[in-house]
Design a protein that fits this description.
This protein is mainly beta. The strands form five sheets. The chain has a six-stranded mixed sheet with strand order 14-15-22-21-17-18, with no helix packed on it. The chain has a five-stranded mixed sheet with strand order 2-1-10-5-6. Strands 3, 4, 7, 8 and 9 form a five-stranded antiparallel sheet that branches.
Length: 366
């Protein structure tokens, strides 16, 4: 038996194919944020979305080390005490999985079956990466920084540690952190304990968990998660373009109360406060519109003032006078670069970086 027998190539679901047992198993290990949690400015750790590529490594704080090597003047081996002794920074960051929305695509890429809930906002505390690199001394020939996590597995026949890289200019951003705390407490095992990378504005695949290695290189990294997995491509032969920063998105906290199975919402006639969050990793959100008729007409929502948290979502509200009948509630965000959510989902083979508008069926009772 070979690794190819264990780990099969990626594929698309057949037109009438339901969610497989393998996909259900992935969904049981990983979870989205309950949409009612959009009411929190900062998502409680247990409600924050979670994606684990392989296994959660067992880690002991006392023995954990992060090696800094490659094109540096002074290779370093840092323990948690050394990291905590350095000046820290706390950054509020909205993190979203690159595959958010994948299960809504037709044909459906067979993988973790996200709808729209793969998101959360946390306050991460740690050491700016650029301070660590300054301590190691960056060789001018370095062009990328490769990050290695302790999680190990096989994907599409490739045995690997989870690894990602950043170009030097991205890695030296003031808010890129080696984080050891989430929402004021030590990282939970599933969120990367004892230390993880946090790259504000980027989709979640860049935020390497269980970090144990930082290597500076003189050439672009070509590991599986960088050169193969997280790329937007039309077909298997398309080299595609890399997934990087988060596209603008608005999500509504579903109003009223839900049906158990369908999650369709029920409201009473009269005033209904529609509220939600909007974010973009590319530029600040500048406006949000809400529709109660599936996008036929739109109305401006009230966007909360800028709170100074550049990388975090912003709350919006809309006063809806609900009338009896069936409604389809949705919202769309626009950022400062003119990026706007599409009504229809843009298809790609991996199901990445899809930011089509959310749709919430709402029944207003007579």
């Amino acid at each position: 038996m070979t690794l190819n027998d264990v780990s099969r190539p990626g594929r698309l679901a057949e037109p009438d194919e339901g969610i497989s047992a393998e996909e259900l198993a992935l969904a049981a290990r990983n979870h989205g944020m309950p949409l009612e949690a959009l009411r929190y400015d900062v998502t409680p750790a247990g409600l924050h979305y979670l994606l684990i590529h392989y296994d959660i490594p067992y880690a002991e704080e006392e023995s954990w080390r992060v090696a800094v090597d490659g094109l540096v003047d002074r290779p370093l081996t840092l323990d948690l005490a050394a990291l905590r002794a350095m000046p820290s920074r706390t950054v509020r960051v909205t993190m979203e999985c690159a595959g958010n929305g994948r299960a809504r695509l037709l044909p459906r890429p067979v993988s973790q079956p996200w709808l729209v809930e793969a998101v959360g906002t946390a306050e991460w505390t740690g050491v700016p990466l650029r301070d660590v690199l300054a301590g190691a001394g960056v060789d001018p020939a370095a062009v990328e920084v490769v990050f290695t996590g302790a999680d190990h597995g096989v994907e599409r026949g490739v045995e690997q540690d989870y690894q990602r890289s950043l170009a030097m200019d991205e890695a030296l951003g003031e808010d890129v952190l080696l984080a050891y705390a989430m929402n004021g407490s030590s990282l939970l095992p599933q969120h990367g304990f004892p230390v993880r990378l946090v790259v504000p504005g980027w989709y979640g695949m860049a935020h390497v968990k269980w970090l144990r290695g930082i290597t500076l290189t003189d050439r672009p990294f070509e590991g599986y998660q960088q050169a193969v997995a997280y790329r937007v491509r039309r077909d298997a032969d398309d080299p595609g373009v890399p997934v990087t920063r988060i596209a603008p998105r608005a999500l509504v906290a579903p109003p009223g109360f839900p049906d158990f199975m369908s999650r369709n919402r029920v409201v009473r006639p009269g005033p209904v406060l529609v509220q939600g969050r909007a974010w973009s990793g590319r530029a600040p959100v500048t406006s949000v519109e809400v529709s109660v008729d599936g996008g036929q007409t739109w109305s401006a929502a009230d966007l909360e003032p800028d709170t100074g948290h550049r990388w975090a979502w912003r709350r919006f509200t809309y006063a809806w006078d609900a009338v009896p009948g069936s409604h389809l509630l949705t919202a769309r965000a626009v950022d400062a670069l003119g990026g706007e959510q599409p009504i229809d989902q843009a298809w790609n083979r991996g199901g990445f970086a899809n930011n089509a508008v959310q749709q919430i069926p709402v029944a207003c009772l007579h």
